[in-house]
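Issue 218. Parser rejects a valid record. Input:
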Amino acid sequence: MKSRILSLSESGKKNSLPLSFFHTDSTGRTCVNGLNKNILLTPPGEDKCCVEGVFAVCLSAGLFPLPDHGFLLIHEDGALLECNLDEEGETLCEVIKPGFAVVSGTVEFWEPLKAGILTVSDKGSRKEREDTSGPALAEALKNIGGIPVERAIVPDDISDISTVLKKWTIGETPMDLVLTTGGTGLSNRDVTPEAISGLPGKDVPGLSEYMRWKTSAFTLRSILSRSLAKLVGQTLVIALPGSRKGALQCFESVAPVLRHAVETASGRGGECGGH
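Output the parser choked on:
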């Protein structure tokens, strides 16, 4: 649901600022206009800008009451905040993506997308190699409002891969989005696409085609990847390469459409042809 920013207020001051910059410092602490501050979302009519160390963002009433957890997208600059209720029921925010907020600017509250990340690696499953792709994807998911609620590492075995994917897609608590990393190459042990193809559902070829095309600008070898995407029930499953760099490049290339895809598949969004 879209809303508007009614005012941006510095701590200790009641005057409203026309523009503010949300970002983080070197330690990851939330900053506003270069100063460490907690960012607080408030509904109209509540004056909470006079608390030291707090920066209040007053929003129009359409968004309230807010869920316990979610993400706030600021449209004009693409800034993204992760929002959580504290013990007193106040909505505090952490900066996921820096950017500017402007009075009268439009914002949108995102419900979290439940995501699973499956690393497919013989050596990783035996703890002979550190999994770097899985944690990197977990962090990148925040940029689309995704929360990794399931993580697993399995060997390059169709049965093991399928068992986890079935649990996460057609089990009792299916994910919104599942990302696999590894097993998309040409070696005999690369069988992730075969495991995904064996699941019931609809192929989504545009995602894999675009990933290969987009990442070929970095390395032509990307066209050898057998990455694919499939909608299983209401869960979108995407197979990504095993390297950290390749997995992130592929994910980031299609990230702008993934939330819309998931929301459409689950009935929460509009038609794919809409604007």
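Fixed in the parser; the record now loads. Helices lie at 122-125, 133-140, 158-169, 192-197, 205-215, 244-266.
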